[in-house]
Amino acid sequence: MGLGGCIILIAVGAILTFATDWHTSGVNVHVVGLILMAVGIIGVAVFTSVLRRRRMVPGATIVEEDRDHLM
Question: Which of 1, 4, 20, 25 has a CA 20 to 30 Å removed from the CA of 45?
């Protein structure tokens, strides 16, 4: 699931929690919305941590150039 899927889960969960007035027997729609929002937020956190790890190059060294000798 990518970042878009996580955002959709958060949006659908918010709609179910805050914008609906449905009453069903056996299923609490507001709790389902909260669960979807929680899963979406966890997904965004996991996605961003994985993306951060992909951008880091292991064993890379930073080299600073001595620009004084160029003048």
Answer: 20
